[in-house]
Design a protein that fits this description.
- The complex is a heterodimer of chains A (485) and B (267).
- With 485 residues, chain A is α+β, with helices and mostly antiparallel strands.
- Chain A has ten helices and 32 strands.
- In chain A, the strands form seven sheets. A six-stranded mixed β-sheet of chain A has the order 6-7-8-3-9-10, sandwiched between helices.
- In chain A, helix 4 packs across helix 5 (142-154).
- Chain A is globular.
- Chain B has two domains: 8-44, no CATH class; 55-266, Orthogonal Bundle (MetI-like fold).
- Helices cover 79% and strands 0% of the residues of chain B.
- Chain B has helices at residues 14-35, 46-53, 55-88, 91-102, 109-124, 131-157, 160-168, 173-184, 186-202, 204-211, 217-226, 230-266.
- Chain B is globular.
- The chains are: A alpha+beta (485), B mainly alpha (267).
- Chains A and B meet through strand 6, helix 3 and helix 5 of A and helix 7, helix 8 and helix 12 of B.
C-alpha cells in the first residue's frame, strides 16, 4: 500500500453469497497494482475463481466494493470493462475460424479491416502461430487453442488479462513451456495479469505476487520467495511445497524446543510461547550418527531424479529430508538444523473458542451451558472459582449469591486435548473433516460442524476429508472464561 | 463379451429387421414399381409428365409448400424465444415448463384439432371466413412441440462460457445473440425445421377438418389411392420422398459441420 497511485484493482470487503445461499467469500480485501503478475492460488472451492469472475464481470459481489482505477465497477457489465479473459476451456467460438475468433472483439469496436489484419498478424506472431488465420478451431491441438485464446484476449489491448486455470488442460511439458511464454508475454505487454491456479509450482514460477487462499479467505499475500520461506500460517506452510511441521515452544531468547531438542532460531518470541516450527525438507542436514542434535534411523530413501527423498524416524517423529546423497534403510544418522532454516509460527491462540450461555443450574450436576452447536454440563467451580452451594443456591467465595442466569461464557480447549471418534454420539459435537495437515507425529484436523463452526483437533490417527466425526474433550481440559455481565 | 450358446448381440436386431423388410423396404419397392410403370405394367415416365402438366397437382404441390413454409416460420418464431427462455431458467424448472409445451402431444390429435376448431368457431363465428389462417393456426398448434424440443436441447447444451467469452470481448446483448447464440443453435433450428416442414406438407387431416380442402399432398395421394390409381399415387409419393431426401441431405451436412466444430472446441 506504499504508493496507492499504482493500484489498478482494489477489492474492499467483498462478500459473495451464491443464489443457493452458499457463502463463497465472507469478507475479502485485495489490492492489485498496475503491471503486476498476480496469482490467486488455493485448493478447489477456495473462492479464487469467483474472485476472477467478479473482476471479469461475470459475477456481482453481494456486498463490498470492486474498484478499477479508483472507480467502482461492481455493476459494470463485462463488455464495458477494459478486461479480457482466457477461459479455462478456452471458449473459442467453434463456428468461426482463427481469424474471426481473434477479430471478434475488434469487429464489435468497429476497427477497420486493415488494422484488424495487422493486429491479427501481430498477435499470432506473439503466440507463435503465424499463418493460422484460416484454420478452423476444431483442427487445433489443445496447446494451439490455448494460444489462440490468449491471442483473442490480448488483441483487444486490455488493461488486465484474466487467466482462469488456463494451463490446467495442457500436458506437463506443454504447461512448463506455456508458463515461461506467459511470463515473457507479460513482460512484453506490460499489462496486469491475474492468474488463477491450484498448482503451487505454477504460481511460484510465474508470479510477481502470490495470493494464497483457502476457504474464501486470503491466507497470505507475498512474493513467491516470501510465501515459500516465511509462511504466515500452517495452511500456507503445508500447501506450498513440502514441509516438516513440529509443535514446540520457545525456551529462551531465540531458542526453540521441538522434536526433542533445542535449536537456535532467528525469530524472537517470548519464552514459553507455544509455536509451530516449519522446516523445509531441503534444509535438514544429515550428519553422522551421534553428531547433530536429533538422532534417528533411515526409514526410506527414494531417488527423485535431481535429489533423494529420505525419511528418518526419530524417537518422536518422522522427518522428510531432500538432499543429494543416498542412505541405506536402517542406517543410523544424526540430523541438524541451521538457525535460518527454522521458520516459527506462533500458535494461534484464537482457535477453539466458543461462546455460550448459562441456562440452568442444578446443585448436584452443575451448570448447563448452551453453545451454538452443543451444550455442556460444567461443574460450577470450573466457571466460578471458589464457589459453593448452600440450600440449592450458588454462592461466591464471600457467600453472596451468584447471578448465573444468562451469563455469557467462553469455552476453549487445546487441540491436543481433543480426540476424534467415528461414533457421531461419542463426543460433545460432531462435524465433517474439512482439511488436515500432517505434523511430525500426528495430524491436525479442522472439523466443520453443520453450523459452520470450526474445531481444531490433533489426532494421531489418519482420517480423511469429509469423514463424519465427533469430538471428545475431557471436562477438566476445558477452560472457561466468564464474559463481563 | 464372450459369446455363449451361440447368441450374438446383433441377433437382437432380428425383430426390427423383419419389421423393416415387411413394412418399409417391400412397400417402398412396390411404390417405386408402380411409380415407374403404366397400367399395362410396362416401364414408363408418363405419370411424371402428367403430374407436372396438370395444374391441379402442381398447384397442390406449391400450395402444400406454402402451408408448410408459413407453418415452419411461425413455429420457429414462437419456439425459439420459448426454448431460449426455458433453457436459461435453470435446468429443473426448465424441464418442468418444457413439459407444459410438450403435454398436448399426449392428447389425441383429432381431439385436439376438434377442440381447437370449436374455439375458433366461437371466436370467428364461422370457420369459412378465414380458412387459410385457421389451417395455419391448427398446424402451428400441432407442430410447435416438435420445434421446441430440438431447439431446447441445443440451447441447454450451449456452453455458457461462449456467451461469457463474447461479453468479455465487448459484445452487447444483441451482438451475443446474433454472433454467438444464433449460429451455435443452427443444428437445433435445422432439425426443428425438418421435423415441422415435412410433416406439415402432407398433413391432410387439418386441411380436411378446418378447410374442407384437399389441396395438400397428403390428400392428393389419398384420393388417388382410394380410387385404386396406384400409379399416380406412387408418383406423388416418390416426388415427396425426393423432396424429403433433398432437405435431409442438406440439413445433415449443415448439422454435422456444426457439431464437429463444437466437439473440437470442448477437447
Amino acid at each position: 500500500m506504499e504508493n496507492t497511485k499504482d493500484t489498478l484493482i482494489e477489492l474492499k470487503h467483498v462478500k459473495k453469497v451464491f443464489e443457493d445461499g452458499v457463502t463463497v467469500i465472507e469478507d475479502l480485501s485485495l489490492e492489485i497494482k498496475k503491471g503486476e503478475f498476480v496469482t490467486l492460488l488455493g485448493p478447489s472451492g477456495c473462492g479464487k475463481t469467483t474472485i476472477l469472475r467478479m473482476i471479469g464481470g461475470f459475477e456481482k459481489p453481494t456486498s463490498g466494493e470492486l474498484l478499477l482505477n479508483g472507480k467502482d465497477i461492481s455493476n459494470l457489465p463485462p463488455n464495458e470493462r477494459p478486461i479480457n479473459t482466457v477461459f479455462q476451456k478456452y471458449a473459442l467460438f467453434p463456428h468461426l475460424n482463427v481469424y474471426d475468433n481473434i477479430t471478434f472483439g475488434l469487429k464489435i469496436k468497429g476497427v477497420d479491416k486493415k488494422t484488424q489484419d495487422e493486429k491479427v498478424k501481430k498477435v499470432l506472431e506473439m503466440v507463435d502461430l503465424e499463418g493460422f488465420e484460416k484454420r478452423s478451431i476444431s483442427t487445433l491441438s489443445g496447446g494451439q487453442q490455448q494460444r489462440i485464446a490468449i491471442a483473442r484476449a490480448i488483441v483487444n489491448e486490455p488493461e488486465v488479462l484474466l487467466l482462469d486455470e488456463s494451463l490446467s488442460a495442457l500436458d506437463a511439458k506443454m504447461r512448463k513451456e506455456m508458463q515461461i511464454e506467459l511470463k515473457e508475454m507479460h513482460k512484453k505487454l506490460g499489462i496486469t495479469f491475474i492468474f488463477v491456479t491450484h498448482d503451487q509450482e505454477e504460481a511460484l514460477t510465474m508470479s510477481d505476487k502470490v495470493v494464497v487462499m483457502s476457504d474464501g479467505d486470503v491466507q497470505q499475500i507475498g512474493t513467491p520467495e516470501d510465501i515459500y520461506n516465511e509462511p504466515k500460517n500452517l495452511f500456507v506452510a503445508d500447501f506450498i511445497g513440502e514441509s516438516n511441521i513440529f509443535n514446540g515452544k520457545m525456551v529462551g531468547k531465540k531458542l526453540v524446543e521441538f522434536g526433542g531438542a533445542v535449536f537456535e532460531c532467528v525469530d524472537d518470541y517470548a519464552v514459553d510461547t507455544v509455536i509451530d516450527a516449519v522446516v523445509r525438507p531441503e534444509d535438514v542436514e544429515i550428519t553422522k550418527a551421534g553428531e547433530g542434535r536429533i538422532q534417528g534411523e533411515v526409514l526410506s530413501c527414494d531417488f527423485k531424479g535431481i535429489f533423494y527423498v529420505t525419511n528418518v524416524k526419530t524417537d518422536k517423529a518422522e522427518i522428510e529430508i531432500h538432499n543429494l546423497k543416498s542412505y541405506q534403510i536402517g542406517e543410523k544418522v544424526g540430523l541438524d538444523l541451521a538457525p535460518d532454516s527454522i521458520h516459527i509460527i506462533p500458535y494461534d491462540t484464537s482457535i477453539n473458542h466458543y461462546e455460550g450461555e448459562i441456562t440452568e443450574y442444578e446443585p448436584e450436576i452443575g451448570l448447563r451451558v448452551v453453545f451454538e452447536d452443543f451444550s455442556l454440563r460444567v461443574p460450577a467451580a470450573q466457571i466460578f472459582q471458589g464457589c459453593k452451594t448452600e440450600n440449592g443456591k450458588l454462592l461466591d467465595a464471600e457467600g453472596k449469591e451468584i447471578a448465573w442466569e444468562g451469563r455469557k461464557v467462553i469455552a476453549s480447549f487445546a487441540p491436543e486435548d481433543a480426540t476424534l471418534s467415528d461414533d457421531a454420539d461419542a463426543g460433545f459435537v460432531a462435524g465433517d473433516i474439512f482439511n488436515f495437515i500432517y505434523m511430525d507425529d500426528h495430524y491436525r484436523y479442522r472439523v466443520r460442524s453443520e453450523s459452520e463452526e470450526d474445531y481444531i483437533v490433533n489426532d494421531e490417527y489418519l482420517w480423511n476429508n469429509e469423514d463424519h466425526v465427533s469430538i471428545s474433550v475431557p471436562m477438566e481440559k476445558f477452560s472457561f472464561e466468564l464474559k463481563k455481565a | 463379451m464372450k459369446q455363449k450358446h451361440g447368441f450374438q448381440r446383433k441377433q437382437l436386431a432380428i425383430p426390427y429387421a423383419i419389421f423393416l423388410l415387411l413394412f418399409v423396404i417391400l412397400p417402398l419397392l412396390v411404390v417405386i414399381f408402380y411409380a415407374f410403370t403404366n397400367e399395362d405394367g410396362h416401364f414408363s415416365l408418363e405419370n411424371y409428365v402428367a403430374f407436372f402438366r396438370s395444374g391441379k397437382t402442381v398447384g397442390t404441390l406449391l400450395y402444400s409448400i406454402v402451408i408448410a413454409l408459413v407453418t415452419t416460420v411461425i413455429c420457429l418464431l414462437i419456439a425459439y424465444p420459448t426454448a431460449y427462455v426455458l433453457s436459461k431458467t435453470g435446468l429443473k424448472s426448465g424441464d418442468a415448463l418444457l413439459l407444459l409445451f410438450v403435454l398436448p402431444m399426449w392428447i389425441n390429435f383429432t381431439l385436439r384439432i376438434t377442440a381447437l376448431k370449436e374455439i375458433l368457431t366461437l371466436i370467428e363465428g364461422n370457420l369459412a371466413f378465414h380458412p387459410f389462417a385457421n389451417t395455419i393456426i391448427c398446424m402451428v398448434y400441432d407442430f410447435l412441440p416438435f420445434m421446441i424440443m430440438p431447439l431446447y436441447n441445443t440451447l441447454t447444451k450451449l456452453d455458457d462460457s461462449f456467451i461469457e467469452a463474447a461479453q468479455d470481448l465487448g459484445a452487447k446483448k444483441h451482438h451475443v445473440f446474433l454472433k454467438v447464440i444464433l449460429p451455435l443453435s443452427v443444428p437445433g433450428i435445422v432439425s426443428g425445421v425438418t421435423m415441422v416442414f415435412l410433416p406439415s406438407m402432407t398433413n391432410y387431416v387439418v386441411l380436411d377438418m378446418v378447410y374442407n380442402s384437399t389441396f395438400i399432398m397428403g390428400s392428393l395421394i389419398g384420393s388417388y389411392f382410394s380410387a385404386y390409381d396406384w400409379h399416380n399415387g406412387s408418383v406423388i409419393s416418390i416426388i415427396l420422398l425426393l423432396i424429403i431426401c433433398l432437405i435431409t441431405a442438406l440439413s445433415s451436412r449443415y448439422t454435422e459441420g456444426e457439431t464437429d466444430g463444437r466437439v473440437g472446441a470442448m477437447k
